[in-house]
Amino acid sequence: GAGVSQSPRYKVAKRGQDVALRCDPISGHVSLFWYQQALGQGPEFLTYFQNEAQLDKSGLPSDRFFAERPEGSVSTLKIQRTQQEDSAVYLCASSLYGGNQPQHFGDGTRLSIL
Amino acid sequence: DAKTTQPPSMDCAEGRAANLPCNHSTISGNEYVYWYRQIHSQGPQYIIHGLKNNETNEMASLIITEDRKSSTLILPHATLRDTAVYYCIVKGSGGSNYKLTFGKGTLLTVNP
User: pLDDT category, A71, cuts 50, 70, 90?
Assistant: First the structure.
């Protein structure tokens, strides 16, 4: 189906390496969100895009985290100089627009930092 | 956004209705109630949402009390594939109300 697609599904990196996580939202969806989910916890908001504009990045844990959506469709979450505490599942969601439209999630990227 | 309270776990027999409660006593007038579920190793799946009227779709029914302080998600005929963590989330619809705030949810186990 034409759901939210995330790649890779699994990523293992050594501490200090940079990683890039990709999200392909549902076609035509204006809003895009990134969430982080630690083991045994619910997802936590990281950042929000409306088209190519990043309207909220208040949830990004540090300045090592950077997200972009240059053409208003595909988005990339980049983590520089990874630390062990960055290990988590990173979820992407999209919605048609804001308001009360439901967000639809991908299956996430499980990031493990060794 | 208003906080929600859900039981940490529930069990249900296969084929029976699963009724998952949620308390949201501090909900405000423009806030919607959303339900998502998360099956192991998958992303959260949207189920249903409502403001004050009861809602039904192909997955479930949402019953919201008249005072809007609580709601119940009903899966009419639970199957083993409905085993998941179910999240009740309250979210406004305007302006800056775009982020979903997940709690710990209810782990529903459907038993054969």
Answer: very high
Residues of B in contact with A48 (CB under 8 A): 98-99
Q: State pLDDT tens for residues B69-108.
A: 999 999 999 999 999 999 999 998 766 788 899 999 999 9
Q: What share of chain B is helix, strand, coil (3-state, %, to 5)?
A: 5, 45, 50
Q: Nearest CA of chain A to the CA of B28: how many Å? A: 15
* Nearest by Cα to A45 from B36, B101, B103: B101
Under an 8 A CB cutoff, do B49 and A108 touch? Answer: no
Residue B96 with chain A: CB contacts under 8 Å: 56
